[in-house]
Fold this protein.
Amino acid sequence: MFKKLIVAAILSATLSQLQAQTLYMPRDIKRAYANGTRSMDGKPGPKYWQNHSRYDISITTAPPESLVKGVETITYYNNSPDTLKRLNMKLILNVHRPGAARMGATSPDYLTKGVQIDDFKISGQTRQWNNATMGSTNQMVSLPKPLMPHDSVQLNITWHFDVSKQSGREGMIDSTSFYLAYFYPRVSVYDDYNGWDRIEFIDAQEFYNDFNDYTLNVTVPKNYVVWATGTLQNAPKVLQKEINDRLQKSFSSDSTIHVATADEMAAGKVTAQNATNTWKWTASNISDVAVGISNHYIWDAGSVVVDRNTGRRASMQAAYSVQGTDFKQSVQFGRNALSWFSTNWPGVPYPFPKMTAFQGFADMEYPMMVNDSQMGDPGFAQLVQDHEIAHTWFPFYMGINETRYAFMDEGWATTLEYLIGTAEKGKEKADAFYKQFRINGWINNRSSNQDIPTITQTSELTTGYGNNAYGKPSLSYLALKDMLGDELFKKALHGYMDRWHGKHPIPWDYFNSMSNVSGKNLTWFFNNWFFTNGYDDLAIKNVVTGKDGYTLTIANMGGFAIPFDVVAEYTDGTKKTIHQTPSIWEKNQKEALVTFVNVRGKSLKSITLDNGIFMDATPGDNTWLVKK
């Protein structure tokens, strides 16, 4: 009894500490911190846990037939302290069923019968499955006996589906080229703050997966090449010797090696000439797998050092049609991205053995793969590929719940896209693109639904999703970088990433980690950027002329704590610039004073606030002219 009283007192004290925090925290999140699965210093709590599965998947397909048959064994490990009486299965391809909930309209070519379960066994016992009624993207199934903490259960599932003719994130690229994603029944995430993830997939928001181990067998007719997440285990069996020799050589080559040309694919000189070939792939501690298939795609490959301390290289591959002219440079673009992201921002070595750029339609990321469209503009294609590769770190290195908190991955990918774009194309071009495609649509849209607080769960958004997921959070990350300086910002970012690599961070883990590792109380900053209806809008309200210079009163009309430059222009055309970091708003987020000394012997013409990429909603009040 005494022990129970002590535990109750500790929980009460922890809750009091949580309630004293100034950042809003939902009740379910508070409970996770009180239970000790998460810690207020930003680290996983002493009682942190997450569940895990081992997937053994075999699929068979024979394009141009759209049918895909699959069989899998899932061993699901319950690492939680809870006794589970049911499992929630994710059947994402059921979004293709007629009548399924979707964010937008679609065409008849998008529609299929979804996932058709042929046989479903739990611990060897057959579970009745009615495909007509069990058609959602979530399906709760009862267990024959409760799954106790630290025990496991085995599922055996046989299923089939038709590849949709309309391709997006997955589907037919052409009659003999498929991109298969989210194609297998899986157990959804059961976590410490929300329990089962049961948010329906509506073909808009993205995903939330556990870290699992995969063995994937893909059986296709001869002359079809398979590209997939993971490491190919049987290359000598499925490839002809010369092709395999080129592939192996590419693993240590800086140059682009043409593993298979279009002519070689057409002449049957690439794959083993069996009636069918089974390609075997493995991947460990990863959140998903995806597959690309074609009998005519060109195959390029090279590699790059991604960890300078160990010399470890990663393979960069590309698969594309003759018409996919953008992809001729994909290997070199990808080599640059893998190296730059690994050594600069985020500055964490690329964690996987390879990356493949596959020509499709989605402009979408998957572990070790990107499915990108033909742009007809290699420069723009490079930027898109950079963005998708950046997702490796967010959400695949960090197991982010994209369905609820898209700003935790899309915001970072947008930031990394901007930073690498600055290195590749120069600051002027990177700024122009960022403002045009990431900020302009938000800052020039006065609709109230565009200024919803960024912390709003993505799953609850319809309009405003893009700005809350991409531009606004990206600006917050760049503002924090400006305020802390590169060295301290990177130290804090690495602390957060090291703590939550391979785990499931939520926004409060990010907020707490960045404050803890930086040694600064950043609560005011995160409250400003994530929990308010702010936007970017400064104004010069008053200028007082002193003996040696000027004092400006700057009003923060929009509310966000943004950096800015005060630019003084003189009558001789010269300029003087004073930079202000977001720290100027820490004590007063509505108004700030900036004083600068005049340049001796010069006459002031004007003073302008230049927000740079933090585009101002009403730039007309950002300039003060000296009265003649």
Remarks:
- The mean pLDDT is 95.
